[in-house]
Specification:
- β4 and β5 form a beta hairpin.
- The protein is built from ten helices and eleven strands.
- The chain has a seven-stranded mixed beta sheet, with helices on both faces. Strands 2-1-4-5 form a four-stranded antiparallel beta sheet, covered by helices on one side.
- The two termini are 25 Å apart.
- α4 runs parallel beside α6.
- By secondary structure, the protein is α/β, with parallel strands linked by helices.
- The protein is globular and about 65 Å long.
- Bound molecules: iron/sulfur cluster and magnesium ion.
- The site of iron/sulfur cluster has 14 residues, from loops.
- One of its GO terms (molecular function) is ATP hydrolysis activity.
- Keywords: ATP-binding, Nucleotide-binding, Transport.
- Belongs to the ABC transporter superfamily.
Length: 319
């Protein structure tokens, strides 16, 4: 069953020079109950803006955000408060996100307090349960966030996000600030929690090697648009979009030859002045004349038995 459905969601910011930047352009995608969708792209591609917009931390410019059948783009602040029970978020920087003056027990219980749920005693029991669930020591609730390492602090942030037993969590670069060995511990925790709790997760990261470990499906963003989306294995093993191919070839691999890497030419274009047509054409090793014309539509390629979708003129879309 579809839990979240974005329908041509767009977010435009005004610039200081009086222009505008399309940070997110007409993104349509679905996330099923219990599904992990990995959203990947270089810094500045709009993936965090997309996450924040669907959470209504940023106001959408246009489009719909259907969550459990309700359009969040049109929800009042009061309705959004109710939605928060089912839709939570974990950010990159657990230290910045946790109030240093509050005990860990208070930090984790905060969503329950805000929603007016339970008594002091029942909240304390729930906090103990959550600490066990995310692998925090029993003594954690009476201690303070600064007493914990980065990985442990991210467990605290996850415990807090789970306090209301949500249906979905948006995780924005949730492991990016951590050392690689700690990263894999937290990724294992996330996979374990999703299996046990049937959680849906939008897992946002610039790092495809992280995304591939947790995602059922992967969506690739470039300059505000989704350019490829499909089952994780299909996208990783048989990517169609030249940008996806470049991202994958950039993942360091044991024994891989440097010569096999696809080098991306040039910088990411200024989002305030995106190239016409396929926005990737200024860096694409396979760009053709047609690529400078109109934006290639995202759709299922006509000539393959694929489940996913791609937006590239090399792969005409089934009409
Ligand atoms: Fe490259 Fe053209 Fe495909 Fe864009 S549409 S990715 S420029 S081949
Ligand atoms: Mg970001």
């Amino acid at each position: 069953m579809t839990l979240l459905s974005l329908d041509r969601l767009s977010k435009t910011f005004p610039t200081r020079e009086g222009g505008s930047v399309k940070a997110v352009t007409e993104v349509s995608l679905d996330i099923a109950e219990g599904e992990v969708l990995g959203l990947v792209g270089e810094s500045g591609c709009g993936k965090s803006t997309l996450g924040r917009t669907l959470l209504r931390l940023i106001e959408p410019s246009s489009g719909r955000i259907l969550f459990g059948g309700r359009d969040l783009a049109a929800a009042s602040p009061r309705e959004m408060r109710a939605v928060r029970r089912d839709l939570q978020v974990v950010f990159q920087d657990p230290f910045g996100a946790l109030n240093p003056r509050h005990s860990v027990g208070h930090v984790i219980a905060e969503p329950l307090i805000v929603q007016g749920i339970g008594t002091r005693a029942s909240r304390r029991a729930r906090v103990a349960e959550l600490c066990a669930l995310v692998g925090l020591p029993e003594t954690a609730p009476s201690r303070y966030p600064h007493e914990f390492s980065g990985g442990q602090r991210q467990r605290i942030a996850i415990a807090r996000a789970l306090a209301l037993d949500p249906k979905m969590i948006v995780m924005d670069e949730a492991v990016s600030a951590l050392d690689v060995s700690i990263q894999s511990q937290i990724l294992n925790l996330i996979s374990d929690l999703r299996a046990r709790l049937g959680l849906a997760i939008l897992f946002i990261s610039h790092d495809l090697s992280v995304i591939r470990h947790v995602s059922d499906r992967i969506a690739v963003m470039y300059l505000g648009r989704v350019v490829e989306i499909g089952p994780a294995q299909e996208v990783m093993e048989r990517p169609l979009h030249p940008y996806t191919q470049a991202l994958i070839s950039a993942i360091p691999q044991v024994g891989a030859r440097q010569a096999d890497r696809i080098r991306l030419e040039g910088e990411v274009p200024d989002p305030a002045h995106p190239p016409a047509g396929c926005a990737f054409h200024t860096r694409c090793p396979r760009a053709m004349e047609v690529c400078r014309g109109a934006v290639p539509p995202l759709g299922r390629p006509a000539d393959t038995g694929r489940a996913g979708q791609v937006a590239c003129y090399l792969h005409p879309v089934a009409s």
